[in-house]
Amino acid sequence: MKRILGTMLATRMAGRGRRRGALGTASALGLLGGRRRRSSGLGSKLGLAALGYMAFQAYQKSQSSQSGSAQSATTTSSGSSLIDTIRDKANELLGDGSGPTQASGQAAAASADDEDMREGEAAAERFSEDEALLMIRAMITAAYSDGALSQDERARIVQAIDDADATPEERATMEREIANPKPLDTLLGQVNDQETAEEFYLASRAAVDGESAQEQRYLSDLRQRLGLSEEEAAEADAIAS
């Protein structure tokens, strides 16, 4: 289930992967790492690093499978790998510079990125299959918040299942979850700590555009019920946007 969760996060499920970039790319990873280093708030939790790392792994896998596509050719011709882009984002967070100062900043950013990746990998290893299923259920329930699961959302979940090389058992589980989304009250009963609350909100936020009035009300109500501050929710919004 962790593979499926990573793919759902990386492709944004609501169609946002095409429009604003996948959660496993430089923007999200740079924000996650930068916020962990700069504050003790939402971005400091390793549970979020686990989600980011799983999305990153899924994104890398998708890019590898598209090595012969035009998208991959464009990336190659640009002379910039995904890791290079992540480091560019870290440099941006640390501030621009020139000469020795810039070189020092780049070296520090590269070291910080390596640390972020190691922390994310370790956190993802500790992330259980049950936790992954809870986050998947959070995403599906959020997607239903506007009254129905759109054909695009459904297609993206099915694609995530395929891309994750899901087993027959995992496919059957996902089919049941899509057909029978869990009530939010039931899911919130499994959120027992701050870290899980932050993960739950981020996963939910990644599943919707947050642009319709229904989705905005859902996210606002979810934030309050999870006991997150407006600042914590705004940081999750920035990571998922």
What is the succession of H and E elements?
A: HHHHHHHHHHHHHH
Task: Let me know the number of strands.
Answer: 0
- Secondary-structure-derived class: mainly alpha
Distance between the termini: 24 Å
- The coarse silhouette is globular
Q: How many individual helices? A: 14
Overall pLDDT level? 74
Rg from alpha-carbon coordinates: 18 Å
- What are the low-pLDDT stretches, counting only 5+ consecutive residues below 50? 16-21, 38-43, 70-87, 93-99
Largest sheet: number of strands, sense, barrel closure: none
Name the helicity range.
over 70%
What percentage of the residues does DSSP assign to strands (E)? under 5%
Structure description:
The chain has about 240 residues and is mainly α. The chain has 14 helices and no strands. Helix 4 (about 45-65) packs parallel to helix 12 (about 195-205).
Topology (elements, then pairings):
Elements: H1 2-11, H2 16-20, H3 26-38, H4 46-65, H5 70-77, H6 82-94, H7 99-126, H8 129-143, H9 151-163, H10 168-179, H11 184-188, H12 194-207, H13 213-226, H14 230-240
Helix pairs in contact: 1-4, 1-8, 1-9, 3-4, 3-6, 4-7, 4-12, 6-7, 8-12, 12-13, 12-14
Essential attributes:
single chain, globular, mainly alpha, 241 residues
Brief synopsis:
The chain is mainly α. The chain has helices spanning 2-11, 16-20, 26-38, 46-65, 70-77, 82-94, 99-126, 129-143, 151-163, 168-179, 184-188, 194-207, 213-226, 230-240. Mean pLDDT is 74; it is low at 16-21, 38-43, 70-87 and 93-99.
